[in-house]
Amino acid sequence: MFTPRAQNPALAASLTVLAAAFAAGTTLLAKALGTGVLGPEMHALQISFGRFLFALITISCATAVLHPKFTRPHLGLHAGRSALGWGGVTLMFAAAAFIPLSDATAISFLNPVFGMLLAIPLLGEKVGPVRWSAALIALAGAAVLTRPGGEAIELGAVLALCSALCLGAELILIKRLSGREGPLQILFINNAIGLLIAGFAASFVWQAPTLSQWLALAGIGVLMAGAQACFVNAMARADASFVAPFFYAALVFAAIYDAAVFRVVPDAVSILGACIILTGAGLLAWREGRVRAPFPAPRK
Description:
The chain has helices at about 10-35, 45-65, 75-95, 100-110, 110-125, 130-145, 150-180, 185-200, 210-235, 240-245, 250-260, 270-290. It is about 75% helix and about 0% strand. The radius of gyration is 18 Å and the shape is globular. Keywords: Membrane, Signal, Transmembrane, Transmembrane helix. Pfam families: EamA. This is DMT family transporter.
């Protein structure tokens, strides 16, 4: 599942688009749970618990089947990575209840931008004019999507920005882990620790889910595990610079899902902000692909 494969660009592109569809689906289900579509409104902390619970179950099944070789883990890095990942996921689920899915998805593409900016002081990386330009362009798009003056939408955009910041910081720890441990081991430990954190936090806001809510929570976990598996396999079959742009299809899927389920259609501001962010993120992905860094796997 995580071993290098023969190069197959067509399959890599298809797997990446499928990963994008799955990732957008998790945000759709989180919005349905957080806005009361499937029962009483569910707190983002509880939605996050369901995401980690069912993702861990899915990854545990994959581990049992594949029998990967586990090495001694760096628990300190795993704990920090899991805490940041849990924070990013929870904030994104909270944001989905306030803003259009297309806006939340577009802002999530700032993850690698924040990761690049944080790598300067934390990893001592040098950033050239192309990467600085990409970051400034993407951040300008995020400023458009905050829509000053619209209280609910502005709050949702701020939550999504905080989510992107947490997940961008998580990328720093993922870089440090990826060179010393296998992908499936990292995913398993991450979701196990994340479940402990999410379970403790959710205990303060817990309400008994309905059957439909349990099914939605399970769907979030399974879809995210599927998105991660598809993306990792895509990366094994093509260069990162080729794969990365196809994941931007998540923005299209998010808009389609939102229109179909919530009758929310992106307006001119959403389209403008998303285009600006995609320009910056695309420029950064192109630059990273020419150098060495892979595009980050989808996280929710």
